[in-house]
Design a protein that fits this description.
Helices cover 65% and strands 6% of the residues. With 388 residues, the chain is α+β, with helices and mostly antiparallel strands. Helix 1 runs antiparallel to helix 9, helix 13 packs antiparallel against helix 14 and helix 14 runs parallel beside helix 15. The termini are far apart.
Length: 388
């Protein structure tokens, strides 16, 4: 269980993170701070719209059909102070404060809406949805109700003590996206730790364990993205050596991802079988057959891509006869390793990309063969003319 002092240190860090690093009038972060100040003065919430309207068709559609509509502006002005923050298409072109905002609020898509209280603490995330302005306003009302309920429970908790107070605070925090609690609600976590010194609610430990898991996943994803497969395998074996059941399975999956990245498909399949035996009824155990099928599909696609690349290389390196037009050189086809992960939707996205690459390679091969045949026919015709 974390001590109250350690939780309070998180609160201090959260406050520091909210201080502006730049007070430039054109600084996007300063625009957010100015909107936040207005929200405090008007006793409203803050609606931050993160968009890429200069390059994103989705953002352009969202602005045209929803946030740009006067009906939407008039209705949301009753509860929110709105600030729209535009991002450029390329990260290198982004103002430093834009990157700070993205890192702080952790939104994943463009456009995104982040709803916060006047203090800048988020309580809901959303984005593009089906329907028009009327439906979207109804959706925002439902999200705004989360903050109302959160605050009601906070007020009730202030008049309580001990486990009852801790329970009310836990109930309030569970209305929120759980991955933001540690960063933005450290003060409430400190109160829970103080009111529940024995950790009977288990909530603070739950949040801390989730944070550890997130950092672990980020560390292994960095290794995967860098192609550090051997390091990933050795790390997963070391980290999971003393674990059992589902905990051990998690590290086994990291190893499987690395083996797939190395195209060691047979070894990956063996590891999947061994992983399943550790806890057949766990989430990982129940996904084992899907992992196995994904590895099999990855192997098949890699063989097809390798074959297409080999055929292209042979065609491109064929001896050029005198007077024969130079053949178009084919770019090498590089197969992207398929990551074996618990999210099957991500597996499907990787599969779609590989299928698209294979289709493009096949089409390119057909084009080159066509050009080669046309060139040979022209040479044949020229030789026939020379004999006349």
């Amino acid at each position: 269980m974390k001590t109250t002092a350690s939780i309070l240190s998180l609160s201090f860090a959260a406050v520091i993170s909210c201080l502006p690093l730049s007070l430039s009038a054109h600084c996007p972060k300063h625009e957010v701070i100015a909107a936040q100040k207005k929200a405090i003065e008007s006793k409203k919430d803050l609606m931050m719209v993160f968009s890429g309207k200069a390059w994103s068709g989705r953002s352009q559609k969202f602005e045209k059909e929803i946030i740009g509509q006067q009906k939407f502006k008039n209705a949301t002005a009753k509860k929110f102070v709105t600030v729209v923050v535009d991002f450029p298409a390329k990260r290198k072109d982004a103002h430093t404060s834009l990157l700070e905002l993205r890192q702080k609020y952790r939104f994943r898509q463009m456009p995104s809406i982040v709803l916060t209280d006047a203090a800048g603490r988020p309580y809901a995330y959303t984005g593009i949805r089906k329907g028009g302005v009327k439906d979207y306003l109804k959706h925002l009302d439902q999200l705004h109700a989360i903050r109302v309920e959160r605050d009601r429970l906070f007020v009730e908790a202030k008049g309580s003590k001990g486990l009852k107070k801790a329970g009310l605070l836990v109930k309030a925090l569970k209305t929120l996206p759980q991955d933001i609690v540690r960063d933005f609600y450290a003060a409430e976590l400190a109160e829970i730790a103080s009111s529940d010194p024995k950790g009977e609610t288990g909530y603070v430990d739950q949040i801390e364990n989730a944070e550890k898991l997130k950092k672990e996943q980020q560390r292994y994803n960095r290794m995967l993205n860098r192609g550090e497969y051997d390091k990933m395998i050795s790390s997963s074996m070391r980290d999971g050596a003393k674990l059992k059941g589902e905990e051990a399975q998690r590290f086994a999956v990291y190893k499987i991802r690395a083996l797939a990245g190395q195209k060691k498909y047979a070894e990956a399949q063996k590891e999947i079988v061994a992983m399943k035996k550790l806890a057949p009824e766990s989430v990982f155990g129940k996904q084992a057959d899907r992992y196995s099928q994904s590895v099999a599909n990855a192997r098949k696609r890699n063989e097809q891509l390798t074959k297409a690349a080999k055929n292209g290389k042979q065609g491109g390196q064929a001896a050029q006869k005198p007077g024969q037009p130079a053949k178009v050189q084919r770019a090498p086809i590089v197969s992207k390793p398929v990551a074996i992960i618990s999210d099957i939707n991500e597996l499907r996205k990787d599969a779609s990309k590989l299928e698209a690459k294979l289709k493009a390679a096949t089409q390119k091969e057909a084009e080159l063969i066509g050009k080669q045949k046309a060139g040979q026919q022209r040479i044949k015709a020229l030789k026939a003319n020379m004999k006349k």
